[in-house]
Design goal:
The complex is a heterodimer of chains A (153) and B (662).
Chain A (H helix, E strand, L loop, with lengths): L1 E6 L2 E6 L6 H8 L18 E4 L2 E4 L5 H4 L3 E3 L12 H8 L9 H14 L5 H8 L9 H14 L2
Parallel strand pairs in A: 1-5
Antiparallel strand pairs in A: 1-2, 3-4, 3-5
Helix pairs in contact in A: 3-6, 4-5
Chain B lengths: L14 E3 L5 E5 L8 H13 L6 E5 L16 H28 L7 E3 L2 E4 L2 E4 H5 L32 H5 L15 E5 L7 E7 L1 H4 L4 E7 L2 E6 L2 H10 L1 E6 L8 E7 L3 H6 L3 E9 L2 E2 L7 E6 L4 E5 L4 H12 L6 E5 L13 H13 L3 E4 L2 H7 L2 E2 L2 E9 L5 E10 L12 H5 L11 E8 L14 H18 L4 H6 L5 H14 L9 E10 L2 E11 L5 E11 L6 H21 L4 E2 L2 E2 L18 E6 L18 H13 L10 H9 L1
Helix pairs in contact in B: 1-2, 8-9, 12-16
Classes of the chains: A alpha+beta (153), B alpha+beta (662).
Bound molecules: FE2/S2 (inorganic) cluster (FES) (2 copies).
The site of one FE2/S2 (inorganic) cluster (FES) has 12 residues of chain A, from loops.
Chain lengths: 153, 662
């Protein structure tokens, strides 16, 4: 089936079965591999993207559902060469090791700051809780989100 | 290893200066989040006197880098730094020598700056000096390093070189490799590892749209299709009659690590005697990104993209499996999801290569989360028995320690170095006049492979918990009790530093407590203090952790902190939550819901890492040591908080309740 998607502000067309996940379309059709596969079951957060500004698991979103929303992936978060404050803050705090979980975390953090510009530490922990990081950068990620909130957009 | 052995280090395999002035530094070590690319770039930039942006570090590409046995443990920086430093320093002296000829100026008058050799106002670019004749030659052992005052990068905090690519999604992990004409492979899995297909009915699988190849190769059954979903649907459509093979029972070994005379007698005659046993369940590396590989296998050559810690070892295995000679196989290590040792087994690359060979196309293979849990190797369970006696003054008089566990690496037990791996840190770093320490290798049902810090975390959990028990049993303060048995000033220093930073000795709130533990791990000195709170239900909450670490000369202090923090966070997760569920040899854990790990909500409010490296000592690894003492520090804190001594991990609420209310 043909679907028209809006991804990072660009209109894209794909021809895939309607049950295909948004994750698969992003990675395998559109070459946007920054959105990562971790579990395929909504349990790890590696695949999070923004759908109309809300952070969602792209592994649980079908292409059909995605077609009616504006999708932003990690590749579309920066404004050209200017990074989103969350991205800058993750670099400044070195809030990553292997970085596999980072794209998902960055997307949820960006969505959180849209919703709550000055989140408390508990807000941050709650908003990011579905993002598993095996390398253990939780503390740094919390600091990075606080830093991004201070800088604002 | 056929291509292996120690070959003399030559400059052309270490440093290359490209026509555009880029400096390429080459190493067989692998980056997996521990920051070695940045550390290597820093020291090459300093030693060769070029801006760091101009340094490209190539890691592990078997077509370019010198042979390397693999990136194990956390010693990569330690082992490799001196070689790269010498290579870069040698390159610089060569460049100065060439410039002296070109400019007809004596060498002593020349200096370097930003990729140029300079003589007052005159200067010549490195690139111009190598245009006719690339740098080459045997790297001498005694090239002097530049004066530390001339360093611009080493020792200064700086963001990792990959950081920008990671936060923008541009970083390319193994599963992100896309090749022209690439297809997707899936392996048909048996109910349990090591089963053989007796009969395969692939009729339904063949009927699925997009299927490119059905593969049967030895015990491997698989399918390749245009899309990943098609390959997976086809794999599900197979009817396979599997014969479960009984895994070969591993051999038993008894390896004495230390054997002094008269230990049993001394224990029997001690003023205070204590014994206890500790146990830890099997756990798994559980990378967030499951195993992946992309292989492009042709009739006479193969290129394999993989997250591997031993590219040359993998190349050899691939060559054997594909019937190619090693020189025709190129392994290109990609940025892997952190795997904490797991990547030293090469399952996915071998599977992808075989599928590609049959399909005649490049094949992408990524395991599912369920495959990763069920088929990845594990850290074996461990059972530690310890007994000791104190003399009348409260000093340890004798110590007996029996470690029961399985092999901690892939590929069976090798008595030549097995004790170093499976018995790692079994011998305490305390002054003990008489001790017997024995490693017992006993078969366990699950496949095992390397795991962060190997057996050290298990041994230090037992040893450092037991040190606490001895201190409490003899009414000695736990830190003072340790210090009176420590001769090594560097170990003493990290204990004293962590005590100071954590406010050791000050009582905490109700139901809260501090616990301490430390060790020397491969030359790195570390001591940690954990602060916990135990609620009425027995749930242990980790409030804060302090660590003091001495990894010798420190190249990048914030990189050290990040690694130590990560080790602490991960190991706290093993300690509090993790246990792999199995039924005989079958792992029944299949998703994160049955294998919970620490999340954002569980992260301690603070992890304070004080890096106090002895600059006169060689750099040692920091990827693993952070993980080693934390289990005991937490268990010791739980004891202070609620009086429950837990000797069995994980520290679940039921266990804590049972011990507390007993
Ligand atoms: S891959 Fe989507 S939540 Fe794990
Ligand atoms: S940085 Fe490796 S999983 Fe988070």
């Amino acid at each position: 089936m043909n679907f028209r998607l809006s991804v990072n502000g660009i209109e894209r067309h794909v021809d895939v079965p309607r049950s295909t996940t948004l994750l698969s379309v992003l990675r395998n059709n559109l070459g946007l591999t920054g959105t990562r596969y971790g579990c395929g079951a909504g349990q790890c957060g590696a695949c999070y993207v923004l759908a109309d500004g809300r952070a969602v698991a792209s592994c649980l979103t079908t292409v059909e559902q995605a077609a009616s929303q504006a999708i932003t992936t990690v590749e579309g978060l920066a404004l050209g060469e200017r990074l989103h404050p969350v991205q800058d803050a993750f670099i400044a705090e070195d809030a990553m090791q292997c970085g596999y979980c980072t794209s998902g975390m960055v997307m949820s953090a960006a969505a959180l700051l849209e919703r709550i510009p000055h989140p408390s530490e508990d807000d941050i922990r709650a908003a990011l809780d579905m993002h598993l990081c095996r390398c253990g950068v939780y503390g740094r990620a919390i600091r990075a989100v606080k830093r991004a909130a201070e800088v604002g957009r | 290893m056929s291509s292996g052995g120690r070959q003399p280090e030559v400059l052309e395999r270490r440093i290359r200066i490209e026509p555009d002035g880029t400096v390429v530094a080459l190493s067989g070590k692998i980056e997996f989040g521990q920051g070695i690319r940045t550390a290597f770039a820093q020291l090459v930039a300093d030693e060769l006197d070029v801006p760091i942006e101009r340094v490209t570090v190539v890691l592990g590409d078997t077509a370019q880098v010198p042979f390397d046995v693999g990136t194990f443990g956390s010693r990569s920086v330690a082992q490799e730094s001196p070689v790269l430093r010498r290579a870069a320093a040698f390159a610089r002296t060569q460049l100065i020598a060439r410039a002296s000829e070109t400019l007809r100026v004596p060498r002593e008058r020349l200096s370097t700056a930003d990729g140029f050799v300079c003589d007052g106002g005159m200067r010549v670019a490195y690139a111009d000096l190598v245009r006719q004749r690339p740098l080459s030659g045997r790297i001498p052992d005694d090239v002097p390093a530049r004066d530390p005052s001339e360093r611009r990068y080493v020792g200064k905090p700086m963001p990792r070189l990959e950081a920008r690519d990671i936060v923008t999604g541009r970083a390319r992990y193994t599963a992100d490799v896309r090749l022209p004409d690439m297809a997707y492979g899936v392996v048909v899995r048996p109910p349990v590892r090591g089963a053989a297909p007796r009969a395969v009915d692939d009729a339904a699988a063949r009927a699925i749209a997009g299927v490119v190849a059905i593969v049967r190769h030895g015990d491997l059954v698989g399918v390749v299709a245009e899309r990943e979903e098609q390959a997976r649907a086809a794999a599900d459509a197979f009817e396979v009659d599997w014969v479960v093979k009984r895994p070969a029972e591993g051999k038993r070994w008894t390896i004495p690590i230390r054997e002094d005379a008269g230990v049993d007698e001394a224990i029997a005659g001690g003023a205070t005697r204590l014994e206890a046993s500790f146990s830890l369940p099997p756990i798994t590396n559980a990378p967030i990104g499951p195993s992946a590989a992309v292989a492009d296998v042709r009739a006479d050559a193969a290129t394999v993209y993989a997250g591997t810690q031993r590219p040359f070892g993998l190349r050899e295995e691939l060559a054997t499996a594909l019937g190619l000679d090693e020189q025709s196989v190129r392994v290109l290590p990609q940025l892997p999801s952190g795997t904490y040792g797991r990547n030293s087994s090469g399952d996915a690359p071998l599977e992808a290569a075989i599928l590609s060979k049959y399909a005649g196309r490049p094949v992408h293979l990524q395991w599912t989360r369920a495959e990763e849990f069920a088929f990845a190797p594990t850290r074996p369970e461990a059972f530690l028995e310890v007994a000791a006696a104190l003399d009348a003054s409260g000093q340890i008089a004798a110590w007996r320690y029996d470690e029961h566990t399985n092999v901690h690496t892939g590929g069976g037990f090798d008595p030549r170095w097995g004790a170093e791996a499976s018995g790692r840190n079994a011998e305490p770093h305390y002054r003990i006049p008489r001790a017997r320490v024995v490693l017992h290798i006993e078969p366990t049902p699950l496949r095992t492979a390397s795991f962060r810090s190997l057996a050290a975390s298990e041994n230090i959990f037992a040893i450092e918990s037991f040190m606490d028990e001895l201190a409490h049993a003899s009414r000695q303060e736990p830190l003072a009790f340790r210090l009176r048995h420590i001769d090594d000033p560097r170990l003493r220093a990290v204990y004293e530093l962590v005590a100071e930073r954590s406010g050791w000795g000050h009582t905490r709130g109700e139901r809260q407590g501090l616990g301490i533990a430390g060790t020397i791990y491969h030359g790195t000195y570390i001591a940690e203090v954990a602060e916990v709170e135990v609620d009425a239900s027995g749930r242990v909450r980790l409030l804060a952790v302090w660590a003091a670490v001495d990894p010798g000369l420190t190249l990048n202090p914030d990189g050290v902190r990040n690694q130590i923090e990560g080790g602490i966070q991960q190991s706290a997760s093993w300690t509090l939550f993790e246990e792999l569920r199995r039924k005989d040899a079958r792992i029944v854990t299949s998703g994160w819901e049955t294998y919970p790990i620490a999340t954002f909500r569980d992260a301690p409010g603070e992890i304070d890492v004080a890096v106090a490296g002895d600059a006169s000592a060689a750099s040692t690894g920091v990827g693993e040591p952070g993980a080693v003492p934390i289990a005991a520090a937490i268990a010791n804190a739980v004891f202070v908080a609620c009086g429950a001594r837990i000797r069995e991990l994980p520290l679940t609420p039921e266990r804590v309740r049972r011990a507390r209310d007993a």
